[in-house]
Specification:
The chain is mainly alpha-helical. About 75% of the residues lie in helices and about 0% in strands.
């Protein structure tokens, strides 16, 4: 479900946003939604950590590193302490 938000901006900014959105084949609403989603994503530590774990997992998969290699690396690091 979606909800509406009313935002006041100056006419010049509205014109520029309309023009840029149209050039990209998007509605102003789509552009504003993308900006708000990026804003929250960049400031929400939980989302940041989730994204970080996803990127780490993707790298491990791409390098074909599995649970055995991870456990071995952890043991090696802990043994050095």
């Amino acid at each position: 479900m979606t909800t509406q938000m009313i935002v006041r901006i100056n006419p010049e900014l509205k014109y520029k946003v309309n023009s840029l959105a149209k050039a990209e084949g998007k509605s102003v609403s789509e552009v504003v939604r993308e900006l708000l989603e990026d804003y929250v994503k960049n400031r929400d530590i939980g989302l940041y950590i989730d994204d970080l774990w996803q990127r780490i997992g993707d790298k491990l998969i791409s390098r074909k590193i599995g649970p055995k290699e991870i456990h071995r690396a952890i043991k090696e690091v802990r043994a050095k302490k």
